[in-house]
What we know:
- With about 280 residues, the chain is an alpha/beta fold.
- The protein is built from 4 helices and 16 strands.
Amino acid sequence: xxxxxxxxxxxxxxxxxxxxxxxxxxxxxxxxxxxxxxxxxxxxxxxxxxxxxxxxxxxxxxxxxxxxxxxxxxxxxxxxxxxxxxxxxxxxxxxxxxxxxxxxxxxxxxxxxxxxxxxxxxxxxxxxxxxxxxxxxxxxxxxxxxxxxxxxxxxxxxxxxxxxxxxxxxxxxxxxxxxxxxxxxxxxxxxxxxxxxxxxxxxxxxxxxxxxxxxxxxxxxxxxxxxxxxxxxxxxxxxxxxxxxxxxxxxxxxxxxxxxxxxxxxxxxxxxxxxxxxxxxxx
Length: 283
């Protein structure tokens, strides 16, 4: 009887992506990094004069399969400004066994700004997906976090046919208080109201550096945006137990969802930091 190699016997890939950012003069720069397949290293770029390091999370394998376990770990030192996004949607393929797992862990130092704006996750029919996003904020740090899922490959009339979808978002302040969103969905557990829509998204703007006047102005803009596409998008704005705002939206189409998040991002960048939203160069 031959011995089994635990590496060869393992299902899926174990990929890790790690970043450390530091402030050097007017810019945020990447000072340490490492990656393993299926992640691909893609250096940050500077699309404007703000010093923000625009960072693309690139997985050229085409998506995640059952048994994949991919991680992203990032540390933002004091006064850094980093945007992390993806060049395309995260596709999760059918699995008869283990789920595809993605774990995100980010720490933001004092005065740091983190913008987490990946493209939507698309769970294919029969797929199993489990994701966790944990963000730790030091005093004065701010996070803008967007996370969205599709009901499936909508263009192929594949809606709410995945096996399971689990998602956890935890944003913890230096005070120890936190905002938590947990989602566990199967086709059988999706409520009738949500099932009539094709996209679900969450937007978090959290941080003790956001003054009450700016927060109130941002809330007014977000409430207005939630009502601008009454036939295509339904949304609501709430105030969590920590300083900030949370927005939940459902949409009937990808263009409606994209229009909302792009407009929201433009408003919040201008209101929070007096910065315009740049044109992201997706490849």
